[in-house]
Design goal:
heterodimer; A: 111 residues; five-stranded mixed sheet; B: 119 residues; mainly beta; seven-stranded mixed sheet; four-stranded antiparallel sheet; 0% helix
Chain lengths: 111, 119
């Protein structure tokens, strides 16, 4: 079973920041938080991951609470192409551990 | 650099038949994972192949089997197809753990999937 809880859907206006929450209250000390997204009719795409520090890359920022029980993915300037299902996943990183997907958050960017 | 490729893109079969799906990993990757995604659901892990051996397996029956070839490409076989096997089948590849590259801890790169319809 997925170890994360996400809202089923969210809307965001184009050009605004999209903030996608995720709860992972049972996360273990050796588990990272990963975010993937899936645009319609495509395979999932990696976005970002983190352990306990906030992370930023060219796609997004990841904010993890100090107790690591929740996190927020931030898309700073959402575009129509960001419309997708976003999955929050907790996962150990040694070896090639499988990804356990939940049902994710369907993000719709409104023009 | 080609990403993960899968064939065919679409496939229609009838109940009881057998199907083989194919996956070529991203260049430099040696591990292949397979996922099943039913409509409206997140992908579910089927199994993973590394060094031509099944290394991990999800909660799928023995009707689902696989193979990895020396060139790291992989096949997913499903026997005795059921209506419930209709889904998008995704292949993901990941690089060697000792690649030394600053990758996302064995980030998995997904292909576009094969849409299987069982009638």
């Amino acid at each position: 079973d997925a170890k994360t809880t996400q809202p089923p859907s969210m809307d965001c206006a184009e050009g605004r920041a999209a903030n996608l929450p995720c709860n992972h209250s049972t996360i273990s000390g050796n588990e990272y938080v990963y975010w993937y997204r899936q645009i319609h009719s495509q395979g999932p795409q990696y976005i970002i991951h983190g352990l306990k520090n906030n992370e930023t890359n060219e796609m997004a920022s990841l904010i993890i609470t100090e107790d690591r029980k929740s996190s927020t993915l931030i898309l700073p300037h959402a575009t129509l192409r960001d419309t997708a299902v976003y999955y929050c996943i907790v996962r150990v990183t040694f070896g090639n551990e499988k990804l356990t997907f939940g049902t994710g958050t369907r993000l719709t960017i409104i023009p | 650099d080609a990403g993960v490729t899968q064939s065919p893109t679409h496939l229609i079969k009838t109940r009881g038949q057998q199907v083989t799906l194919r996956c070529s990993p991203k260049s430099g990757h040696d591990t292949v994972s397979w996922y099943q995604q039913a409509l409206g659901q997140g992908p579910q892990f089927i199994f993973q192949y590394y060094e031509e051996e099944e290394r991990q397996r999800g909660n799928f029956p023995d009707r689902f089997s696989g193979h990895q070839f020396p060139n790291y490409s992989s096949e997913l076989n499903v026997n005795a197809l059921l209506l419930g096997d209709s889904a998008l089948y995704l292949c993901a590849s990941s690089p060697p753990s000792t690649s030394g590259r600053s990758l996302a801890h064995n980030e998995q790169f997904f292909g576009p999937g094969t849409r299987l319809t069982v009638l």
